[in-house]
Description:
This protein is α+β, with helices and mostly antiparallel strands. It has seven helices and seven strands. It has two domains: 12-49, no CATH class; 64-194, GTP Cyclohydrolase I, domain 2. The protein has helices at 12-26, 38-49, 110-121, 127-142, 156-159, 178-181, 183-194; strands at 64-65, 75-86, 92-102, 107-108, 124-125, 146-155, 170-177. A five-stranded mixed sheet has the order 5-2-3-6-7. It starts with 11 loop residues before the first helix and ends with a helix. Zinc ion is lined by residues 86, 88-89, 91, 155, 157. Homopolymer. Toroid-shaped homodecamer, composed of two pentamers of five dimers.
Amino acid sequence: MTDHAHKPSVSQAEAEAAVRTLIQWAGDNPDREGLLETPKRVAKSYRELFQGYEVEPREYLEKTFEEVGGYDELVVLKNIRFVSFCEHHMLPVVGVAHVGYLPTDRVVGISKLARVVRGFARRLQIQEKMTSDIAHAIQDVLRPHGVGVVIEAEHSCMTMRGVDVPGASLSTSCLLGSVREDPRTREEFLRLVRG
Ligand SMILES: Nc1nc2c(ncn2[C@@H]2O[C@H](COP(=O)(O)OP(=O)(O)OP(=O)(O)O)[C@@H](O)[C@H]2O)c(=O)[nH]1
Ligand SMILES: [Zn+2]
C-alpha cells in the first residue's frame, strides 16, 4: 500500500461521535430530528469520498495491451472530472485532470487513466502532490517515453471561505520524460490539452 494508506483504527461509533461533536461545534443540536441520522450518513459517505485509501492506483495500470498496430503518438484523456479534498481544511477541491502519455510498446485501457485520477483524488491531498502522484504512477508502471498531467481545480477553502475569491482556479502540471524534454512532444501534449 502507499504511504497514505492505513487500516482505519477507529470504529464506526467513534466516527459518528466525532461528527456529532462537529455538529455541535457548528452551532446546531445533534439531537434534533433532522440531524439524528446525520452522523451515520456522514461516516458512511466518508467511506465513499475517501475510497482512495483502499486502493493502490498503480494496480489499475498493470493490465496492458501490446497489439497497438504501430501506434506511436501521444494518448491523451482530457477533462477527467474529479472531487478531492484539501488536506488543510478537508474542503472539496473540484476540477478536471488531463492525462497523457507517449507509449512505448504497451497501451492501457483508457478508463484506467480515469481510475488512477480518482484513486489519488479520493484522499486528503494537495493539488501539486496529486498531479505528481498520477504522473509518477503512470511513469513507473507503463514505462512510456513520457507522461503529462495537467490539473485545473477550484479549492473550496479559497472560494467559499478564507480569502474568498469565487472562480479562482489553480493549474498544476507534471511533465516527465519526452513530454518534458522533447519540445515537439511537449508542444503537442499542451496543444491537445488546450484544444
Ligand atoms: N499549494 C497548495 N496550497 C493549498 C492547496 N489547498 C489549499 N491550500 C492552501 O493551504 C494554505 C493553508 O494555509 P494556512 O495559513 O495554514 O491556513 P488558513 O489560516 O486557513 O489560511 P487561509 O486559507 O488563507 O485562511 C492556504 O493558503 C490554502 O489556500 C493545494 O492543493 N496546494
Ligand atoms: Zn484548503
